[in-house]
């Protein structure tokens, strides 16, 4: 019944989307040729003749994009992003198809308006459905009863999520756990504060069948068990196969402290859990790269007089090249040559070896010491960004010779290479640079990687203007 109802709702939503797409096509024509000043008037009939093809293309794109997959727990921002992505693909497919349609030239402004209006209508429809379902579920309607097997960190966090977001429509009827009443509440969860009551354990895992029969009407069973409990997971699955409850596996891997970009993919239908991985490639990565290139080009052009002045000062202050090249480690352990304005006499580091710069050291030239204090020696690294070696914002890259020692001393040190290195970063704007605590620097780097967003990059750039150039730990 639940599956049939879900399919009915999906088909209804698909039909409604096609109606809205047709409406957006007509509205875009009206705005383009009736409201705005047209270069020439084009009949609505010519555009309506192409509408059936548009509906076929957009319907196929929407189905293939996964827009109608059941996501009861999907949050509104993710839904808006999914619609925007599907619309962008639909517009791209339509424009590609129009290339082969030679009867007359379609208005590019009409296509832009069509994309904007269709996005607004599709999001408005889903927002209305979202609001209606949220109100209904908060009143106790359309609620799915959930039994959680495993009262560990994963199980308790799952229950807190259901409690924190009642609009998802999940009611936890209890936990199954072999520890019984000895299960304690997990420490305060920063994701769901204020929900620290110990879970209600209603039986051991082996009683899964009897519990399901006794409770009756359990819609979902979430097996939140550790990977080592394969026999228990199998027993839970066998119990669910003889009943109507759906089974979902939530591996309890929260005991592993060094998870990074964990996600699930598949290989020929086999589910694969990624525990340690770089950030998955998506549209945000494209935007970040485009912003890196644009920002670096602008920085190099605007600071070109300053760059020329610094180059002359470095050249006149001591013999040797203007730029200093040093091997650093970046994304996924790949090495590259980082560029800096030379701040030391040639050959000094050959005598001292690979060491961090320290306050009051005598290795730097007078000009070089000034460049280090003001971080102006880092400006040539915008060339590294243009070459793709680095990003404007990210963990600062380190020398491989030093990393060999750090990787064994600092837990999680190598995880900072799961993201492209940067000129400035979250650790730097908080003062963890130069000869400061390496542990705190890694803590801030990993926080940035786990919580990265385009907005966070903008915040770091803004803070760099006030904290990043001149700092007591810059030397």
Question: What is shown here, in short?
Answer:
By secondary structure, this protein is an alpha/beta fold. It contains 17 helices and eleven strands. It has a five-stranded parallel β-sheet with strand order 3-2-1-4-5, sandwiched between helices. Strands 6-7 form a two-stranded antiparallel sheet.
Q: Which descriptors apply to this entry?
A:
11% strand; Rossmann fold; 17 helices; disordered N terminus; NAD(P)-bd_dom_sf; 3 domains; alpha/beta; 11 strands; flat; 475 residues; single chain; Bact_transf; 5-stranded parallel β-sheet
Layout of strands and helices, then pairs:
Layout: H1 2-35, H2 44-48, H3 51-64, H4 76-98, H5 108-138, E1 144-149, H6 153-164, E2 170-176, E3 201-203, H7 208-215, E4 220-223, H8 230-241, E5 246-249, E6 263-267, E7 270-274, H9 283-302, H10 304-317, E8 323-329, E9 335-341, H11 348-352, H12 366-374, H13 381-387, E10 391-393, H14 400-409, E11 422-424, H15 426-429, H16 438-450, H17 454-468
Parallel strand pairs: 1-2, 1-4, 2-3, 4-5, 10-11
Antiparallel strand pairs: 6-7, 8-9
Helix pairs in contact: 1-3, 1-5, 3-4, 4-5, 9-13
SSE order, as H and E?
HHHHHEHEEHEHEEEHHEEHHHEHEHHH
Structural class computed from helices and strand pairing: alpha/beta
> Helical content, roughly?
40-55%
**Widest sheet: strand order?**
3-2-1-4-5
Number of strands: 11
Number of domains: 3
Q: What would the principal axes of the Cα set say about the shape? A: flat
Number of helices: 17
Give the CA-CA distance, first to last residue.
Answer: 68 Å
Largest sheet, strands/sense/barrel: 5 strands, parallel
> What's the average pLDDT?
80
Portion of residues in beta strands equals 5-15%
Uncertain segments are 1-5
The multimeric state of the shown protein is single chain
Radius of gyration: 29 Å
